[in-house]
Design brief:
This protein is α/β, with parallel strands linked by helices. The protein contains eleven helices and twelve strands. 44% of the residues are buried.
Length: 369
């Protein structure tokens, strides 16, 4: 049966309740924890064809189909082929697309958690993923795949539950952010925190939202996701029509170049689907991630196979990040690590796009029996 016939989006489940709260890495507990998720394809009789998709910073459970954020990768006939594989994709803990996060209602107060929501770690996200897998009755994954922050989750999964993932695909990911990456995220967070409508995180109660700050954060992020060559190919540099003799400062300062219009569009669409508090929390989770930072390497399952992919023009999470990630996997005991550096002009966004060599390599890795 084709997966499109049995796709189930918009599913929700409470995975942790008051009598069984989620124990977080920070030492606090959280309950209830509701998770929004989607599944694609059919789980086979021996439950051996499950693939878990871990989304990046601003993704959600809607990974496939029309409008799906990873429809180049996941779907019928795609590298993660939902005609043969059973795909699970949840919205992250701390998110704002149906899974419990800082904009959710705190049952103790009846108001949105806001900044009272507990700090999170990548390990917490994976703990919830694994509880969802248990809820679905799946003991072992054929594969787990994630790009960017999604790759961080896959890496954490290999550490937390050796042997639970047979094949790991980590794309444009990092085991430890550089100072430059943290600086960029700080500027984005600062834009949100400095917005007068942030109201110390209680903006929901005031009936406002820090839209200006969140829009600026998104504009900055979109610049970092592209490369200079990719932007040159994508956007014209010609001077806008009608500038000669313009004396109106408002017209002169308004977006006029193609790239400016692109960033304004990205900001507008982002505001329609994302929450500022989730952006603050999830970027901070990435900053703190450093699983290989201890005195000894985590013990990993030597039977696991890993594919680590980077892109030549990705300056945000470049090949040096993937090399460090692959080296950490090998130190932990995984010998079967395939490193692929893919030529692409589209920067960090390449992991979401139709880059044939990249997609073909993932297809071969996931489907090689």
């Amino acid at each position: 049966m084709a997966s499109t016939a049995i796709e189930r989006a918009g599913q929700r489940v409470v995975l942790y309740g008051e009598d069984d709260p989620l124990a977080l890495a920070c030492g606090r507990t959280l309950a209830p924890v509701e998770v929004a998720y989607a599944t694609y394809g059919t789980l086979n009789a021996d439950r051996s064809n499950a693939v878990f998709v871990c989304h990046a910073l601003t993704g959600d459970a809607d990974a496939s189909g029309a409008g799906g954020w990873w429809s180049t990768m996941v779907g019928p006939g795609r590298p993660i082929d939902t005609d043969a594989l059973f795909v699970i994709c949840p919205n992250l803990l701390g998110g704002c697309r149906g899974t419990t996060g800082p904009s959710s209602v705190d049952p103790g107060t009846g108001k949105a958690y806001g900044l009272d929501f507990p700090p999170l770690a990548i390990a917490d996200l994976v703990t919830v993923h694994r509880r969802l897998l248990s809820h679905l009755g799946i003991a072992r994954l054929h594969a787990a795949i994630g790009g960017s922050m999604g790759g961080m989750q896959v890496l954490q999964w290999l550490i937390d539950a050796p042997g639970e993932v047979q094949r790991a695909v980590l794309v444009g990911a990092s085991p430890r952010l550089t100072a430059q990456n943290i600086a960029l995220s700080h500027v984005a967070r600062r834009a949100i925190l400095d917005d007068p409508d942030f109201r110390d995180g209680d903006y929901a109660a005031a009936g406002v939202r820090p839209a200006r700050g969140l829009a600026t954060a998104r504009r900055l992020a979109n610049v970092t996701y592209l490369s200079e060559d990719g932007m040159a190919q994508k956007f014209a540099r010609a001077e806008p029509d009608g500038w000669a003799g313009v004396g109106d400062a408002a017209r002169w300062l308004a977006p006029a170049y193609d790239v400016e219009s692109y960033l304004e569009h990205q900001a507008e669409t982002f505001l329609a689907r994302f929450d500022a508090l989730s952006y603050l929390y999830l970027t901070r989770i990435m900053d703190a991630f450093d699983p290989f930072g201890g005195p000894s390497a985590p013990a990993l399952d030597p039977a696991t196979r890993a594919l680590v992919v980077s892109f030549t023009s990705d300056w945000r999470f470049g090949t040096e990040h993937s090399r460090a990630l692959a080296a950490g996997l090998r130190r932990g005991g995984i010998d079967q690590v395939d490193e692929q550096v893919i030529a692409s002009p589209w920067g960090h966004d390449s992991f979401l796009l139709d880059v044939p060599e990249y997609l073909d390599r993932v297809r071969a890795f996931v489907n090689d029996r």
